[in-house]
Amino acid sequence: MPPARQPALFMPAMLYGVVGWPLAQSLSPLLHNAGFQALRIPAAYMRWEIPPDRLRHFVESVRLIDVQGCSITIPHKMALLPMLDSVSEQARLTGAVNTIYRQGKVLCGENTDITGFLQPLADSPLENMDALILGAGGAAHAAAAALSLRRARRVFAATPSDRSHLPLTERFACIPVPWRERHDLLAHLVINATPLGMRGRHEEKTPFDFTLAGRPADGTPVIAYDIVYNPLETRFLREARLAGRRCVSGLAMFTGQADAQFRLWTGQPLPPLAFDRLRAALGGANPAEAHRQDNTDPPAPPLTPRDMYAHPDTARRQPEHVRQTRPGPLRHSHPGRNQRAARRTGQ
Questions:
Q1: Would you tell me which of 119, 121, 145, 343 could form a disulfide with 256, CB atoms 3.0–4.6 Å apart?
Q2: How many CB atoms neighbour CB 160 within 10 A?
Q3: Phi, psi at 268, each rounded to 5°
Q4: What average pLDDT does the segment 52-63 reach?
């Protein structure tokens, strides 16, 4: 009897990962590793919890060990931007990066959050809608930039400190609102861009009480949009649903921006297997059905990776090692070259 065939040994040749603080809730490793494995790409995607005071040392480590790409999440999206060699126009507009990729020895920054944020709002008449952004971090900046690109009628912003959102309002011509007055606005779109509701110590918190908020007089349905995707239904969305609002889960934005990242790194969309793994991890939730939910509308049509990456302001930029026809030259601004010399970082 011939011996049993041994499975092939997987040896990653390229290293990727997600960077944030904390990261216990992140499903990025599951999604991207499933994509690499399905496409037989010899790469591994890691989880790197880096406190803010070690971020610059981490970037030096990325250069030293030749990490090919990173996803950037809370709280590093804005702080990382000046540490990179080249930053896309979209990231510069947003004031934040959520993606690192390489062009040779050059560390490049991109923001795919705009693409992800807009995808589930493709059919919404934003030009006739008022929006309220709760938060002031990188995700809030991406939401404000996206709403600016779609020419939303008015965009308001509020934070508990009544101060941290002021740079965002200046950058995107938003209207600052005192935190205590946030429920007085008759907004058509309310966006939770804070960590409140995220799995962990903030899971049972919400930045908004829908029972205290009125509805616009024009009768347009109010949309509650949560940037948080884990858990799938946060307290913010649960209370919005009970109050009769339409709900957009953060899963829609997460899958859209992740697919855009994967294309930057590999030149290919995330394969269906990656979304199957994500759906299983979230208890069977379908990313296509997590976009908008209410009591009357039928589920959205199935979402494909091509649909997720449909925003015209984000070209399919690809790293140099990807041998595909390019749509055109990369256009980046250069905030200054970092030191290339590899040195020990002490981590």
A1: 119
A2: 16
A3: -130, 150
A4: 97
Angstrom distance (rounded) from CA 71 to CA 45 = 10
Cβ atoms of 322 and 266 within 8 Å: the answer is yes
Which is more confidently placed, 314 or 212? 212
Please state, in angstroms and rounded to a whole number, the distance separating the CA atoms of residues 317 and 265. 9
Q: Rounded to an integer, what distance in angstroms lies between the CA atom of residue 192 and that of residue 204? A: 14
- Report the C-alpha gap between 147 and 27 in whole angstroms: 26
Residue 164's pLDDT is what?
95
Contact between 141 and 149 under an 8 Å Cβ cutoff? The reply is no
Task: For residue 252, give the DSSP letter.
Answer: H
Q: Which amino acid is at 150?
A: R
Q: Whole-number mean pLDDT of the chain?
A: 83
Closest CA to 88 of 100, 105, 75: 100
**132 neighbors 158 (Cβ within 8 angstroms):** yes
**Which residue in the block uniquely carries the two structure tokens 């007089």?**
217
State how beta strands 332-333 and 86-88 pair: antiparallel
CA distance 32 to 85: 25
CA distance 144 to 129: 13
User: pTM, whole model, 2 decimals?
Assistant: 0.75
Backbone angles phi, psi at 92, to 5 degrees: -65, -40
pLDDT digits (tens, 9 = 90+) for 273-327: 999 999 899 876 665 554 444 433 333 333 333 333 333 333 333 333 333 323 2
Q: Which domains does the chain have, with CATH numbers?
A: 14-113+258-263+313-333 (3.40.50.10860), 115-253+285-308 (3.40.50.720)
Active site (catalytic) residues: 77
Six-digit token string for 333: 């601004």
Please compute Rg for the chain using Cα positions: 20
Q: Are 205 and 197 in contact (CB under 8 A)?
A: yes
Rounded distance between C-alpha atoms, residue 27 and residue 254, angstroms: 9
For tokens 């990729």, the residue is 101
Following CA atoms 258, 10, 57, 77 in sequence, which dihedral angle do they give, to the nearest 10 degrees? 0
Helical axes 28-38 vs 272-281, angle rounded to 10°: 150
